[in-house]
Amino acid sequence: MGIQIRGGRRRDAKQFISLVRALARFEQLDPPSAEGTRRLVGDIFRKKRVNLIVASDRSRLVGYALYFYNYSSFVAKPTLYLEDLFVLDEYRKRGIGYALFRKCVDIAISEGCGRMEWAVLTWNEKALNFYEKLGARRMSDWYVYRLDEQALDKVPRKV
What we know:
Elements: E1 3-7, H1 13-26, H2 34-45, E2 51-57, E3 60-72, E4 77-87, H3 96-110, E5 115-118, H4 125-133, H5 149-154
Parallel strand pairs: 4-5
Antiparallel strand pairs: 1-2, 2-3, 3-4
């Protein structure tokens, strides 16, 4: 029996959070807090704000893709935004990352999306090469900006 790609289920939550923590270690970031973990699980399984696809090896989750939709006013279609794509180190180079990515592509097509987008850390050469080999274009004329939670509170009411 091989790797299965399927939609995430509520009973996957504990293993999924373990994968999120592994991704945080890989990206050298802090994992979500206990409260953040509860929000993440609730946003996936209760509020349906984000969507989860998992890769399982029998009963063990070994990878996941987390995505949601935004909208392009110029294309006048939704965009599938891939927030996370992660596979445990010992399961890499088996086509699992590609299978998760391909599932997202298939969903984007079936949902009538005009495009699919994601961000890649500049130092993640393997991911950069992977995506470019598939025909993805690195957007060089756009900068990503972010207001974190503390910065959101500091935006003035009037300019």
